[in-house]
Automatic annotation (TrEMBL):
It comes from Candidatus Photodesmus katoptron Akat1. Keywords: Aminotransferase, Cytoplasm, Glutamine amidotransferase, Repeat, Transferase. PANTHER family: GLUCOSAMINE--FRUCTOSE-6-PHOSPHATE AMINOTRANSFERASE, ISOMERIZING, GLUTAMINE--FRUCTOSE-6-PHOSPHATE TRANSAMINASE (ISOMERIZING). This is Glutamine--fructose-6-phosphate aminotransferase [isomerizing]. It is found in: Cytoplasm. The active site is at C2 (nucleophile), K607 (for fru-6p isomerization activity). One of its GO terms (molecular function) is glutamine-fructose-6-phosphate transaminase (isomerizing) activity. Homodimer.
Length: 612
């Protein structure tokens, strides 16, 4: 989704800004732009539709090198107004240039007021309202900071806003509410961004602005003011995050790299949290034991892939820990009246920790009577992490592909560890069962490494999808949410319409869709539901459906007319949902390749969905 970079220095910041935008490309966007001001107060603004590369080329085409010691840059993911150069940021008004993440909900009302004051709008973007409003307020203010403060009190919605003033090319003003902003500290130069990844190559020292904060940033100094306008100190932290943005290495795409990284990312997730036989409760949080004892209900909230991880864990919470669990999509949870169960733990799951709906749901839930708020997250210092009481980092490393892969399997591993710790505290899990789970988790990285040998077989299989318009994924029990995840992956990467069904539901409607043009992918591990699933397979076969069945080598399901069987090595039933996810990811990846889509940045999608 939209990305922001800003810099103020004594040197030319243009390349820093462009480089920062490149590092934010993975988030998904449709246009980009930059505005820089030099020492003599000349403002240069360039905006382009499409990739940051286009912006870079446009800069190169300029007769003179574009120079600015202060500047702002942006990648835009269209919300108000189509993707176009005119709607791209920065937006300007008089001497003011502005970039903005988020949505100004009362932009229409503000637009009318500003038009009545004589402002002429060049775009359809809500951000242009901000530029004119700040320009207006500056006329009656002593500083840019004061003008921005007067502007934000008139806004409804969410924002991370950065403003520069051509007449004062020494100071960036930035403020946030609902959209993250991080300030990066250099030596005689300072930076800001919507994601620390944009700045990791130039600094390791960061300060996260809190809700409602405003900062004035010069090359020498950063002054922060809270929502009441009081000067405040915010902690400066040293990041030890590795700069993962680097390279795809031997891989063609980040998605491919991230699929193949899963053995090692899983090892990271479990390290220090389990040993040979035991779940190490301390490894998931020092104060967690007391809370686990009290839990009678778990409420999970998440979106997309993270929601699918939560749906899988629901089976585990009830089967393995004997604790009731509800899972809800954040955008639904936040807009309905919900009843808080007694002694309920609220868990949010998110790769980015910045998903607007998940964050809003957490903030809403915090007004209710939950016993604690846990975040299962991949991004250190994200808003979700900072606003939760208990943190379980999934340690998958940076995920650049828009489609979540390694973060899903790491989320599942962490959830399984949490469930086991809970089951142990509740005396629901026997010592033998705990041993079995721990053993299964310990074996998993190696088993996944071996499973990736199916790569070529799945690549071959993907050819069968080239002319397909629809696909159905079937699973039962905890394999139903794995089918949901497989289906989400296929649709986002290949643009093939796809649905996931609990296999038992087939006869209640979807069976009508089955014909020779409808591939049906079945997840059929060797478990207690296999016999039931076989009946569902027969229902499809009898109606001429094309079946692809992923099963265990020790079942009697064999390739037959209209039925391709992919046999996987047999594995513990407990970790099988994580294991069966891998071939599903490979399948989407290869179908995406065959279809010629941009697998790392599928159209219309963003890595981190920071608007609702
Ligand atoms: C899945 O591949 C997508 N990237 C998307 O569904 C994602 O899982 C969703 O937007 C939630 O993001 P989060 O985990 O960062 O909160």
């Amino acid at each position: 989704m939209c990305g922001i970079v800003g810099a103020v220095a004594q040197r030319n910041v243009t390349n820093i800004l462009i480089h920062g935008l490149h590092r934010l490309e993975y988030r998904g966007y449709d246009s980009s732009g930059i505005a820089v001001v030099d020492f003599k107060s000349n403002l240069t603004r360039i905006r382009c539709l499409g990739k940051v590369k286009n912006l870079e080329n446009a800069l190169k085409k300029k007769k003179e090198q574009v120079f600015g010691n202060i500047g702002i840059a942006h990648t835009r993911w269209a919300t108000h107004g189509e993707p176009s150069e005119i709607n791209a940021h920065p937006h300007t008004s008089g001497d003011i240039a502005v970039v903005h993440n988020g949505i100004i909900e009362n932009h229409e009302e503000l637009r009318k007021i500003l038009q009545s004051r004589g402002y002429i709008f060049a775009s359809e973007a809500d951000t242009e309202v901000l530029a004119h409003l700040i320009e207006w307020e500056l006329r009656f203010s002593n500083s840019l900071r004061e003008a921005v403060q007067k502007t934000t009190i008139q806004l409804e919605g969410t924002y991370g806003i950065v403003v520069i003033d051509r007449k004062n090319p020494k100071c960036l003003v930035v403020t946030r509410s609902g959209s993250p902003i991080v300030i990066g500290f250099g030596i005689n130069e300072n930076f800001l961004a919507s994601d620390q990844l944009a700045l990791l190559n130039i600094t390791r020292h960061f300060m996260y602005l809190e809700e409602g904060d405003l900062a004035e940033i010069t090359y020498q100094k950063v002054n922060v003011f809270d929502i009441k306008g009081q000067k405040v100190e915010r902690k400066i932290i040293e990041s030890n995050s590795k700069d993962h943005i680097a390279a795809k290495g031997q891989y063609h795409h980040f998605m491919q790299k991230e699929i193949f990284e899963q053995a090692s990312s899983l090892k990271n997730a479990i390290e220090g949290r389990i040993n040979k036989d035991l779940i190490l409760t301390n490894g998931i949080g020092v104060h967690i034991t007391k809370i686990l004892q009290k839990i009678e209900h778990v409420q999970i909230i998440a979106c997309g892939t993270s929601y699918n991880a939560g749906m899988t864990a629901r089976y585990w919470f009830e089967n393995l820990a004997g604790v009731a669990c509800d899972v809800e999509i954040a955008s639904e949870f936040r807009y309905r009246k919900f009843i808080t169960r007694s002694n309920s733990l609220l868990i949010t799951i998110s790769q980015s920790g910045e998903t607007a709906d998940t964050l809003a749901a957490l903030r809403l839930a915090k007004k209710k009577n939950y016993i604690s708020f846990m975040a299962i997250c991949n991004t250190e210092n994200s808003s979700l992490v900072r606003e939760s009481d208990l943190i379980l980092m999934i340690r998958a490393g940076a995920e650049i592909g828009v489609a979540s892969t390694k973060t899903f399997t790491n989320q599942l591993a962490i959830l399984l560890i949490l469930v086991t710790a809970l089951g142990k505290q509740k005396h629901f899990i026997s010592i033998e069962k705990e041993k079995e789970i721990v053993n299964a988790l310990n074996l998993l990285p190696k088993q996944i490494d071996n499973l990736l040998n199916l790569n070529q077989e799945i690549q071959y299989l993907s050819k069968g999808f080239i002319d397909k318009k629809n696909t159905l994924f079937l699973g039962r029990g905890e394999f139903y949410p794995i089918a949901m995840e497989a289906s989400l992956k296929l649709k986002e990467i290949s643009y093939i319409h796809s649905e996931a069904y609990a296999a038992g539901e087939l006869k209640h409607g979807p069976l009508a869709l089955i014909d020779v043009n409808m591939p049906v992918i079945v997840l059929a591990p060797n478990n207690e539901l296999l016999e039931k699933l076989k009946s569902n397979i027969e229902e499809v076969k009898a109606r001429g459906g094309i079946l692809y069945i992923f099963t265990s080598i020790d079942t009697d399901i064999k390739t037959d007319k209209g039925m391709t069987v992919i046999s996987l090595p047999s594995i513990s039933e407990i970790t099988a949902p994580i294991y069966y996810t891998i071939p599903m990811q490979l399948l989407s990846y290869y179908v995406g390749l065959i279809k010629g889509t941009n697998v790392d940045q599928p159209r219309n999608l963003a890595k981190s969905v920071t608007v609702e």
